[in-house]
Task: structure prediction
Amino acid sequence: MPLLEDGSKQICYQLSTKPDINFIKIYLDDLNGVHVTAAENKDSSKIEAFLRKKTEWIHQKWQKTHEDLYSIDGLQLEDSQKISYLGRNYKLVIDKSKDKEPNFQFHKGKFNYSYPSDMKEEESLSKLHELLSLWMAAKAKEKFNTLDEQSIEVENDQTRLGVKDNNQIALNWRLVQRSKEDILLHIKDLQEERVC
Result:
């Protein structure tokens, strides 16, 4: 499966070729991600160049379709925000501390983030997003494998919810924000090779 990297953004896509078309078509499958159809004789560098032009559009469309999975990217250093984990919303508590390093944890039904009082706000916010993403990815690795008999891999955030490759399933770590029932449904859809 080809992978297009553009800065920090990755697009893993499936490529189909047909002899009787004169254009490149992009289709965004809700489950499996980006599908590209092109003429058989179309040079791969031209396909990649076309995708590079569409990278921002693809990511915007994907994130708009799955707003619930990307709401954590919009968190600010404010109280009364919620973080979704396994389908439930939990309060985020933010505090300044005397510690030298930022700290993120889930404790007693709340997410807690503390950062040094002398740390700049922009850096503190960036660290919140980084630590939260790392925590979610680690929890995804732990939780996904408790949901199904089949071993489930965790993949980096890409423009797909998951993928089945040689009977191995990988899920986007962001899915750990959804309920166990929703995650199981995505696993079943991938096992049955459905397209949404």
